[in-house]
Amino acid sequence: MKSMIVIPHCQSEHHINGMAGGWTNWPLSELGKRQAENVGNALNKHPNIKEFSAYTSDLLRSLQTAEISTKILELDLKVAEEFREINIGEATGKSVEWLRQNTIPPKDNETRLDYKDLTGGESRREVQARIYKKLDSLDAEGVENLLVFTHGYAATMFIAWFLRLPPEALEYAHFSTPSGSITELINEEGFGLRVLKRLGDTRHLV
Known about the structure:
Number of helices: 6
Structural class: alpha/beta
Helix content: 25-40%
Number of strands: 6
Shape: globular
Order of helices and strands: EHHEHEHHEHEE
CATH topology: Rossmann fold
Distance between the termini: 31 Å
CATH architecture: 3-Layer(aba) Sandwich
């Protein structure tokens, strides 16, 4: 894969009503919809954007961000369930405060990769595995330039995959990608270097 652009979805209703995200279908807020237009307009200035294949998580807040942005870009959009946010299990549909009060403490000698802080939820390793597997498949299919709309927690996995970080690196690694931000990665052909060109860029949202 030559390049990847990662967009965590824009402001969702759950960002402003105190509810948890995870595998829920909260829609974008009105601000979030305007932010998605800004994302599309910013990406439209990319010199090679027409060469990108666009994919999105199937969860509503990511799907809406992608639909608004790719309409401006005039790109076809494909949906991938594998690109969802982390599953928060029994906290789904609950408030952030409920989530905080019911977080399960880690067991002795339990790694961050395998720790599940909520009953029925996913571990970091499980999120990594499903996202890496789908990206491996797209890479094998010959996708050279990938534009992906996803979620804040999941975004780290896309960056790590492109940089060829092994799963064990995600024991501690995390990349800060605010809502509606643009992260761009490129493969410098001839040098064999995978470059994090820009991380969590929000200048287009101002």
